[in-house]
Amino acid sequence: MIERRDVFQAIADPTRRMIIQKLSKGPLNIGQIVEDFDMSRQAVAKHIKILSECGVITVVQKGREQFCEAKLSQLDEVADWVTESRKLWNQRFEKLDMLLKETKK
C-alpha cells in the first residue's frame, strides 16, 4: 500500500518543521542540515525523504552531494486552511457571544 503524503504530514513533526525553516534561508546539502540536529544522518535523511514526498522540498544530486531546497509555495495550502478555520471559529464565537448576551438579559 502506498501512503499518501501531504503538506500537513510534512509539518506534523517538529524536526521536519525545523528542517523547512533552515531551508527557507537557502539550499543546503544534507551534511549542513544534519549538523544542527542531535540525531543520526540516517534519521535526518528519513525526514528529508518525507518532506520530499510531501512536495515541500526538492533534493538534487550535484556531484557527490545531495542538496535540498525548500518549496515554500507548498505551504500555501496550510495558510489557506488556517485562514478558513479562523473564519469558521470566529463566526462560531460571535454566535456564542450573541447567545450569552441574550441569556444575560
Task: Count every helix, treating DSSP H or I runs of 4 or more residues as helices.
Answer: 5
Distance between the termini: 59 Å
Helix-strand pattern = HHEHHEEH
CATH topology: Arc Repressor Mutant, subunit A
How much helix is in the residues? 55-70%
- The CATH class label is Mainly Alpha
Question: Which of globular, elongated, flat, extended, rod-shaped describes the shape?
Answer: elongated
What integer is the average pLDDT? Answer: 90
Task: Give the SSE map.
Elements: H1 7-11, H2 14-23, E1 28-29, H3 30-34, H4 41-53, E2 57-62, E3 65-70, H5 76-104
Helix pairs in contact: 2-4
Describe the protein in words.
With 105 residues, the protein is α+β, with helices and mostly antiparallel strands. The protein has one domain (7-104): Arc Repressor Mutant, subunit A (Orthogonal Bundle), CATH 1.10.10.10. It is 59% helix and 13% strand. The protein has helices spanning 7-11, 14-23, 30-34, 41-53, 76-104, and strands at 28-29, 57-62, 65-70. A 3-stranded antiparallel β-sheet has the order 1-3-2. A hairpin with a 2-residue loop joins strand 2 (57-62) and strand 3. Helix 2 (14-23) packs across helix 4. The protein is elongated. It comes from Pararcticibacter amylolyticus. InterPro entries: ArsR-like_HTH (IPR011991), HTH_ArsR_DNA-bd_dom (IPR001845), WH-like_DNA-bd_sf (IPR036388), WH_DNA-bd_sf (IPR036390). Residues 1-90 form the HTH arsR-type domain. This is Transcriptional regulator. GO terms for molecular function: DNA-binding transcription factor activity.
